[in-house]
Amino acid sequence: MTHLAKTILTLLLMYLTALPTVARADSLVSDISESQIAITSNFTGKRLVLFGAISREATDENQVEADEGIRDVIVVIRGPREDLVVRKKERVAGVWVNTDGIEFEDVPSYYFIAASRDFEAIAEPIVYRRNALGPRYLRFKPKIEELSQEERTEYQEAIIRNLENSGLFFEVAGGVQFLDRTLFRTTVDLPANVPDGTYSTKVYLLKNGKVVSVQSKPLYINKTGLERSIFEFAQDDPLAYGILAVLFAFLAGWLASLMFRQD
């Protein structure tokens, strides 16, 4: 039996146990269609399916649950953290130029968040701020302390905007679909330029606007084959990699001139 089949069977069993109407404490069980993704030379992106169920364990057999409340699910996938330099454009002598950059630490290289409804309808902003849910509630740390709060906000908005334009930040209201009262699913599109590394996948269950359960699982995205060897070589010896890259470009240009040279 495959991993996907086992997970679907587990979800069905959890669904069947959720049928009685006694008072229950909510929890989650979820999984993703693939937990390991290999990036090769012909990698053009990947679509993943994250699915799960809400499990309701009995807490009092004599008490009937009169009000089930409103339940929502939020899915967050966060890529490995990295340092990122942001440059501000300023007008100099009538020309827009990039000024000195400011480096920020712990910026997610990829960020995906989807919810079962509009975010504003699910919970108050303090819930998102407390759990760092959503791009606007992430906190990027600058390496200099002289920035004012207004400047930090401006730079953070620029980071988010640039990553959104690169297809690496996603915010999808209504992206999580409930198949019935307990089963849910969402699709995640990984672009061709997705960074490799270990990703964090978290599923949040909210009841009446409050987080009542969280489940976390890793997602591994790794380069393989020749791409992996070139990447490791560039990281381990950047000077030699740069020299070889220049020599290769020179050789390619020379060969091209020979091929298209006219007698």
Short summary:
The chain has 263 residues and is α+β, with helices and mostly antiparallel strands. It has helices at residues 3-17, 119-122, 125-131, 149-165, 225-236, 238-259, and strands at residues 22-32, 36-39, 46-64, 71-78, 81-92, 95-108, 111-115, 141-142, 169-173, 177-178, 183-190, 197-207, 210-223. It has 6 helices and 13 strands.
Output the number of helix runs.
Answer: 6
The CATH topology annotation of the largest domain reads as Immunoglobulin-like
Number of strands: 13
From the alpha-carbon coordinates, what is the Rg to the nearest angstrom? 24 Å
Query: Which sheet architecture does the biggest sheet show?
Result: 6 strands, mixed
The CATH superfamily of the largest domain appears as Macroglobulin (MG2) domain
Mean pLDDT: 79
> For this structure, what is the CATH class of the largest domain?
Mainly Beta
| Biggest sheet: strand arrangement | 2-13-12-4-7-9
